[in-house]
Amino acid sequence: MPVPQQKRPLGKTVRMPARTYARRRPKPRSGTPLTLWRTTEPARITSSQVAQLAKRVAATEILHERRWNAARNGDAAAAVAVAMDHLHRRGGRTSLTDVIVGNLVLLALRGDATAPVVIAHALHALGRLDPVDADLPRLARLWSRRPLAPRPRERAAGA
Question: Would you state the pLDDT for residue 29?
């Protein structure tokens, strides 16, 4: 004979223990080209890192995003629009976020005035999602200032 299921009163929800965002996310690998914006100070980004980032961004295609080609080709307005839409809809530490904001890093280091402001906004948003990471507000403050040009590639000793 089957056992009858218990009925819950309408309007009552069963709450599951919440997992924090900090527990789910993997630790970012410092210095990888796509994570530069959230792991490295703007003044410490080298030209070789910028070249690696540019290769990764150029090789990425975002499906169902009509503005991505223009954004990837240097249109600052399209890049900001893509970034703001993505941050407000999805946000979080995803590979797609890293690519989209990485494109803004390239624009910021080329002298665009809007890109660093949007990068700072993205870092503030991540900081609200992950209050454990104390580096994010500091990096947001640094990006909100006008970033310096990338440092030249370091030469090996004796070269």
Answer: 56
